[in-house]
């Protein structure tokens, strides 16, 4: 039987377990650092590098680089969502639209975003726009596919409700189909934010003078492993925050969805 | 016909429906002709899977018949019609809308201004006893409350004909009884032509002015009963039990296969 005491002990045990695994990681880190000084910076060196960076910015302060990357992702993903939801809805709803544009979409979609880099660089250089465009290309399809799937799988009963109350095509989409597809659309947005975050880093590594991707690439060029570590941490944290952000927006937009 | 003035509201003429299953025609509704009188409480009784729901969907205009005609007030209709509304078996409240949002949807879709449609919807929300729940979402309601919203939603649209497809099938027995009284009470204050479908004999006798008994799939009319029992009806009444016995002896048993 589970008493209050045993439950507490169990809880403490599991907490201890996860804390010790983190401790183990740090110990392993320190150990490796001691074996390969220079190639593998210790926690202390990484921390010192971070302080140094905050004191002596590298082409702008740290937060500016993070902000630059984030801004590019957010702009691109917002555009991808706006257009993607429209395109995806049309694709999922209208047979006519699907047979007209669906095939073209299916041909272009499998091209990985990175394969667009050379063309985009030749056409648009390495400014702000080509990076945003690249992230857009990589995330648009994700939103489209998810939206179209959501629209096509909309609960037939809800459609019947729309039909019985004589909704016209436009009302059907606005009042029934889109709300019914929101879970699928948000799944797409969450994926798009994650993928967009990965693509912006790649874009910045290939040619940029700002952004987290630029920073980590610079770390590679000058052999500054501590800087690379810092960037990797930040990239991980931002990635996680983006996912949380998407869930937060979803909860705000759909109050009817119960917590599970 | 048992009904006041006997004016025919809805008429089905040789309605059939079949689906293609593995390149073979599978008949679900077999040549049904029937008349529904104005403000009548008609019950369609039949075993599960007897094609009743398909017939209802055809009357409501959600599905097209393979053959046959439907007349409303003597005029042939096609597809959905403003005067015919349906309370679905699975209710089908839109989870993203509140009780108010669900109730007013019919009026919203037909372009009634917000203030007016709110007022009408409010009236019917109160009529089904859900005052105070206007801003609740469907997932916060019990099964019986959801079904009340489904009924309020249909009434708010002010149809002449209301179709109820096994509306209480998923409720527990207690809620079911009180909902039966509720639907009769609403029918008394807001007379409408009601087509009520059920697979429950007691429910059929308790509610109906006329019962049309359906056979097993494909749906076809097996027998018609006029129910002349006094309301409120009592399911322990000898006449009630006699009817019950008579109808059950004619009802096909659904083995659920």
Compile the SSE list and pairings.
The complex is a heterodimer of chains A (260) and B (257).
Chain A: H1 4-35, H2 43-55, H3 62-93, H4 95-108, H5 117-124, H6 128-152, H7 156-164, H8 169-206, H9 212-221, H10 225-253
Helix pairs in contact in A: 2-10, 3-4, 3-6, 3-8, 3-9, 5-6, 6-8, 7-8, 8-9, 8-10, 9-10
Chain B: E1 8-21, E2 24-37, E3 41-45, H1 52-60, E4 67-72, E5 75-76, E6 84-87, H2 99-103, H3 105-109, H4 114-127, H5 143-156, E7 161-165, H6 173-189, E8 193-198, H7 201-207, E9 210-214, E10 221-226, H8 238-250
Parallel strand pairs in B: 3-8, 3-9, 6-7, 7-8
Antiparallel strand pairs in B: 1-2, 1-4, 4-5, 9-10
Helix pairs in contact in B: 4-5, 7-8
Q: Number of helical runs of chain A? A: 10
Q: Give the amount of beta strand of chain A, in percent.
A: under 5%
Helix/strand-derived category of chain B reads alpha/beta
Which structural class matches the secondary elements of chain A? mainly alpha
Q: What distance separates the N and C termini of chain A? A: 28 Å
Helix content range of chain B: 25-40%
Radius of gyration of chain B: 18 Å
* Mean pLDDT, all residues of chain B: 87
Number of domains of chain B: 2
Look at the structure and give the mean pLDDT of chain A. Answer: 90
SSE ordering of chain B: EEEHEEEHHHHEHEHEEH
Oligomeric nature of the chains: heterodimer
User: What percentage of amino acids of chain B are in beta strands?
Assistant: 25-35%
Question: What's this, in brief?
Answer:
Chain A has ten helices and no strands. Chain A has 260 residues and is an all-alpha fold. In chain A, α3 crosses α4 (95-108), α3 (62-93) packs parallel to α6 and α8 (169-206) runs parallel beside α9 (212-221).
